[in-house]
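To: structure subgroup
Subject: Chain for Friday's discussion

All,

I'm putting the inputs and outputs inline so they're searchable in the archive.
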Amino acid sequence: MFGRRKAKQERGEMGPAGVPWLAYPEPQWPEPAPSAPEPVPAAAVVDDFLPPDFRMDTDDELAGRFMPWRRPLVVEGEVRACPQCQAYRDWVILCTQDRIWLRCRDGHETLEPHLDVAWYNRNSGPSNGKFGTLEEGLRSLDH
């Protein structure tokens, strides 16, 4: 019995599992017609979804941004203190011209080279006001 199966497999009448091969013709697929590439539709022009009163100004339109920082500021493992009065908390952090400035309660301003705009963007919340001058903004923070 095993000899016949092996002989049929060698002749190509049966597959390796002893199942007979069925002789069906190869399917004839139609050749794809050559076609021109489909044109890419132009992007639709969409109006801004926010009304003008709710839109944030770009950095080009603003002289700078600021935020309060009431707790001690730790940069690279060190608590920052004002070089003039040694205050180490209750800062106003100013972001202007791609630089970060620290302003203490007494009005001393110090450039902080170890912080950048990306740090400011990660740590600042949404802006809740727009001011004509820095002094107006500082008054709004009771500084």
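Points worth raising on Friday:
The longest strand covers residues 91-96.
The helical segments are 2-11, 117-123, 134-140.

D.
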